[in-house]
Amino acid sequence: MAVGEIFLAAFVQLLLERLTPQEILGYFGSLGGAGKKLQKWRETLSAVAAVLSDAEEKQLTSKAVDLWLNDLKHLAYDLDDLLNTFSNEMLEREQLKLHQTGTSKVRGFFTKVPHKVKFNFNMNSEIDEIANRLQDIFDRKEKLGLKYIEQTSTSTSSSKRTPSSPVLDGSVVGRDEDAGKIVELLSRNPDPSSPTNYQVVAIVGMGGLGKTTLAGRVFNDVVAMKQFSLKIWVSVSDNFDLQTVTRAIFREVTSRPCDMDEFSRLQHNLSKEIDGKKFLIVLDDVWSTCDYDLWRSLQAPLRGGAKGSKIMVTTRDEKVAILMGAPAGDVYHLKTLSEEDCLQVFEQHVSNDRPPNFELLKEKIVTNCNGLPLAAKTLGGVLRCEETGKWEEILNDKLWSMSDRSKILPVLRLSYHYLPSPLKRCFAYCSILPNDYEFGKTQLILLWMAEGFLEQSQQTEGTKGMEDIGDEYFGELLSRSLFQTSGKNSSCYVMHDLVGDLARWAAADTFCRLEDKLHGRCSPNTRHLSYISAKFDGEKRFETFSEAKGLRTFLPLPVSGGYENYLTRYATSDLLPQLKYLRVLSFSGYKLTEVPNSVGKLRHLRYLDLSHTLITCLPESTCMLYNLQTLILENCSKLKTLPSNMSNLSNLRHLNNSNMPSLEEMPPKVSRFTHLRTLPNFVVGKGSASGIGEIQSLHLRGTLSVGRLENVIDVGDAKTAQIMNKEGLEILQLEWSGTSEKELEVLCGLEPHKKLKELTIKGYNGFEFSKWIGHPSFSDMKSVKLENCKNCRFLPPLGQLPFLKNLQIQGLVNVESVGAEFYGECSLPFPVLEDLTFQDMQNWKEWLPCKRDEEIRVFPCMEKLSILGCPKLKDWLPKSMDSLSELYIAACEELVVSIANYKHLRGLFICGCKVVDRSGVKFELLEHMWLASISEFRLEIDGFIRGLPKLQNLRITGCEELTCLWENEDRWLQPRISNIIGGNISDSPSHFIQELRALKELVLTGCSNLISFPEVGWPPCLENVKMESCNSLTYFVRYQVPPSIRRIEIAKCQNLKLLVKDAWELEGCLEWLEIKECASLTSLSGKGGRLPRTLKFVRISDCERLESIIKTFHEGTCLDALTIERCANLKSLPEGLCHLSALRMLWVEECGSLVSFPSGGLPSSLICLSICSCAQLEALPRGYVDNLSSLQILLLRCWGGLASILEEGFPPNLIDLEIGPLSECGLHHLGRLTSLETFSIFCVDPDVVSFPPKEVLLPKSLIKLDIAGFPNLKRLSSSFQSLTSLESLSIMYCPKLASIIPEQEDHLPLSLTQLRIREGCPLLTKKYQPGKGRLWPKQIAHIPYVYVGGCDDEAEAEADRRA
Question: Which SUPFAM superfamilies does this one have (predicted)?
Fold first, then answer.
């Protein structure tokens, strides 16, 4: 594979500089002539380096030269490892000298007599091997006829013309017409004949054409997207993983992490979240790895969305669009850009300088770009970093016309070719990143630094830090459009997938991603490895590591959004000691509880990431990692102490210990970290060795939080810390966890520099704040937080800070008044403040206006005001805040809120105050309003309602005065309402409520006066109604549900008897209906009747008096899911169930009076069927096996009709089966279920002593197996070993089972990643309980997750881990 000279020029130059005679002879003169050998190396390597430019040119046409370069590359790696071993030995000997008079553990490590002799022998052996390989490289150079070629410098030093502010993301060029057509496709009315409620729209085109950019433009079109209530964007990429994509959709829909292991439960919950809502889901960059079965599974929970929902797919393959069901008319083939548009894209990304012959070069530019936006963008990035005089040479380079099997775009290959050599190393390293992976700049720079890519050569001018060099390199790659800003997160970056292909092409066999090596192993040449960490990573995952002895990078990447992963102990105890050349090691996101002591033997290690783990301490051996530059302990919530000899890590530059609440104090002598730049959390200890004065000499940057300041006894120590001189700090937090004397003096001594941007003070117990807080000289201060400063009676003059935007004051319980001292003495207090929060101010009584000048308008830019938990505050709030868009008031029982002062509100949330007063102002922008537990309203109801033209979401909790709006006419008491509200009622209540013409959602909670809703006069746009604890409600409506309503949720309305009182056939557009915990409900309709045809989801639970749902279903009903739970009096299901052709899920649980299914049986469309704890249900309908060929999930638990299963067997395409009780003969049907992945069985014949019985073969496709209720089971049979895909095993209520190891075996399947031994297994519990007996025997030590205990205990343990 032709890969250019990659990074060899820079790599070899650094090796040459390390092979200086002074260094070698000074350090290793005692190695029996090693110095002379190394000097010979330098001479030979210099001769080789001189011909690299010629080799680079010839490798494109010569396979022999290409192989020569590849061999040289790997020799360079091994030579580098050898030189690092030399350096490590010297570091260790220097440390030994420092500890010769001590008794430390570090000294003990070096005092083994054979160590030096063994080291010398090993080094001489390796030196001889390297010498032979280097001589072979030299000899082949001569045979290949490689010559020295003079090269112009490609230095990235400051003397090079580098753009200062590149425009990386200009407007989308040339796609207006395309965007309009896509919007038109997305806005089309749904096809009434379509079997689904969504339609697929596909954008098809080759890579680099701008499919993602076009989709992103449409996705962010505010006007076009208004039609969708849910907008979801998921990057799919080349490795289509069903669970990963489903979890990504779930996270986008719910805005919360997805921690569900069971895929069926994940799909069920996603279905509930998305049903009834009109959605747009963008599946970006789908490849042919998505087959039809995967697509069917992915779209299953999406079928319940509202009519008109859309799925937009971008793909290179039209077959993918067809597979996903996109009609021919909805497949949009994206074409290349015109020459004019292509040139415009190019000019967005090139500098303003132009060569004199630019007009003549235009044709060559557009020809080389070939109509591809990515090519134009990349070419612009290449030329902007070159002198204009070289443009013509680059545009005529032979790389444009040269082809190979890599299929890399010529412009990308050229872009790489013209990178300076140091940048080639950095760029090639990015091949470890998965497609569409979002990475941070700092993260990548620290990885580059650990790999040695940022070390300054002797030729480099200046004394820049490695991080500064990395920042320049990153900016250069960004300016060349090889990196681009993420569209989701502006602080992160991504690479286009074609650029990722370029990086992998450049990296060749030195880099490996496990996802790319599914059918192979890492080679001996693999140096850098990454993989996407899974929930459970077992031993089988790491089989590919066996040959990669020279591995430098071990980097799991948690891309699924969570840090809840488990790792096999094999990785830490067996694999790790073999990887002696590691420079980068990460266990981030794994629930490790300890770090192996062997980590101290990884002497080359420079980057160690243990963030988001559960470790409680670091082994003392980590103090021997003398090369360590970066140690990441972020979110190690259980870590209490750091090693006492940690100051030995003299090369440490970044110690990220943020969010470590258990850390008790810093290790001694932190001041020895002379290179340290990052230390976000310094916990002051009680002794002087870990006192605050230790940070005096540290040149820290970014964030610093100083905790346990009560341990500062001497005020002089605070001044010694010299916080004022740390000008690299942007964020400072000062925190006290207890009381101490002289806190004010300590606070004064910790005054920071004037350019600080954010300040937090927590737990301060002084009676007043230091005068520097709020001083106007802090002109860059943008955010201040004062928290739990309980003794302060007055606030500091924060109004004087000229650029303060965010202010949070919380827990200052002694403050009674806020006034002039808060505003300060400036002419305009808080000139740019946007967000102000007061919280938990228990004794705050008054907020006084700024009276110094009546013309002053305080808070002119305020957008959000929150007052929470201030029970004594009353009377006055600031007025005339014309910019205020959000107002939050909660638990302020004495406060009178005059909302008339804030007429530009968009969101109003008031929960628990004395009075709400409006006084006739219209709120023409208000979209969301939540009113709860308000003692008194002073509103003119007519004007109030008419003054809310844009209100979309209304929530009312326990405000009886407002719920009178919906009292039915025969209970309307006009005098009573007039007296309460203070207005004139000239019409029925519906006259007022229908004025809320934009209202989409109405939520009523605890409104006990509400009996029912009116039949007419509903808001015309109302779609969702939610009601809870409205105990006077007897029915929702009398005749018909209003046609605009799509979703109804009713809970805990104890007197609700019917949904609709007097209608035979329900009409309308209702799609979602959920009723739960309504004890009086007997039926949905008083006349029996039928449900609306549009209904898709029905769930009724915990309604003990429910006798029937409805009499019959329409044949054309769109019902997708029907769930009935814990309705003890339900005797039958509606007739016509068999005709529900769209029904995918039927779930019936704990309905003890249900006897049989309706005539006609079950619909063939079912995918999920669950019948649980229905004791009187006799059997499934005859012929169900043949009829339910689409069934994938079958749950049959605790009911008498299971005998019928044995007669017909199981539906053939099951993926998930949960069943019990079941006789032994019933197990024989399992062998035919070749797709079964999850099998749960309980309550089997008591005679079974071995599972599975010898005559029974479980499907080899099984991934998850749960066994429960085997009273006489004594062993697992040897056929367990045939379950080579098994990942999860759970055993419960098997009292006689003494071992989980199958017969004639010594271990469980290596594929197993989860083992749960639950209650009712006393012998297993005794044998495997952690901390008792043998702790994790060898047979199960490889399993990442082992749990022994009850189900409830596991849930509690999981919660504790997260806490």
Answer: L domain-like (SSF52058), P-loop containing nucleoside triphosphate hydrolases (SSF52540), RNI-like (SSF52047)
Provide the phi-psi class of 561: left if phi over 0, else alpha when psi is between -120 and 50, else beta. Answer: left
Question: Is 606:630 a contact under the CB 8 Å cutoff?
Answer: yes
DSSP secondary structure of 1148-1162: EES-TT---PPTT--
User: Would you state the structure tokens that stand for residue 322, as one six-digit string?
Assistant: 């067809």
Among 246-250, 358-362, 1331-1335, the range scoring the smallest mean pLDDT is: 1331-1335
CA 603 to chain centre: 33
Point out the least confidently predicted range of 654-663, 765-774, 969-978, 1179-1188: 969-978
Q: How far apart are CA 256 and CA 1111, in angstroms?
A: 39
Residues in the chain: 1363
Sign of the CA dihedral 304, 309, 314, 318? positive
Contact in structure between 1114 and 1138 (CB atoms under 8 Å): no
3-state secondary structure of 658: coil
Question: What DSSP assignment string belongs to 478-536?
Answer: HHTTSSEE-SS-TTEEE--HHHHHHHHHHHGGGEEEGGG-TTS---TT--EEEEE--SE
Whether the CB-CB separation of 675 and 654 falls below 8 Å is answered with: no
Interior CA angle at 751 toward 745 and 753, to 5°? 170
* Residue 1266: band (very low, low, confident or very high) from pLDDT cuts 50, 70, 90: very high
Give 543's pLDDT tier (boundaries 50, 70, 90): confident
H/E stretch holding 1317 = strand 1314-1317
Q: How far is CA 308 from the centre of its chain?
A: 29
**pLDDT of 979 above 50:** no
**pLDDT score at 977:** 30
Nearest to 1093 by CA among 1067, 1064, 1120: 1067
- In angstroms, the CA 1223 to CA 1242 distance is 10
| Residue 722 predicted with pLDDT over 90 | yes
Q: Is the pLDDT of residue 1119 over 60?
A: yes
Q: CA-based angle 714:719:725, to the nearest 5?
A: 160
Please report the pLDDT score of residue 577 as a whole number. 92
Burial of 1332 (0-12, 13-18, 19+ CB in 10 A): exposed
In the three-class reduction of DSSP (H, G, I as helix; E, B as strand; rest coil), residue 161 is classed as coil
Element spanning 427, H or E: helix 421-429
Predicted structure pTM score: 0.84
Q: Do 957 and 931 contact (CB within 8 A), yes or no? A: yes
What are 44's two structure tokens?
A: 């030979």
For the domain covering 517-655, report its CATH number: 3.80.10.10
Neighbours of 521 (CB within 10 A): 14
Question: Is the C-alpha dihedral spanning 1208, 1209, 1215, 1221 positive or negative?
Answer: positive
Closest alpha carbon to 110 in 643, 626, 653, 668: 626
Using alpha carbons, select from 588, 574, 697, 701 the residue that is nearest to residue 634. 588
Find the helix or strand (DSSP H, E) in which 1207 lies. Answer: helix 1203-1208
Terminal CA-to-CA distance of the chain, rounded, Å? 50
Task: Please state the domain extents for the chain.
Answer: 8-144, 189-333, 339-509, 517-655
517-655 matches 189-333 in CATH topology: no
CA distances from 1222 to 568, 1244, 1274 (A): 35, 5, 18
- Give the integer Cα–Cα distance in Å for 795 and 799: 10
- Each residue's pLDDT tens digit, 792-808: 999 999 999 999 999 99
| pLDDT tens-digit readout, 753-769 | 999 999 999 999 999 99
Res. 705 pLDDT band, cuts 50 70 90: very high
Residue of 267, 309, 200 whose CA lies nearest to 1121: 267
* CA 90 vs CA 37, 793, 1250, 1263: distances in Å: 19, 59, 61, 51
Q: Which of 1144, 1070, 1077, 1150 is nearest to 1110 (CA)?
A: 1070
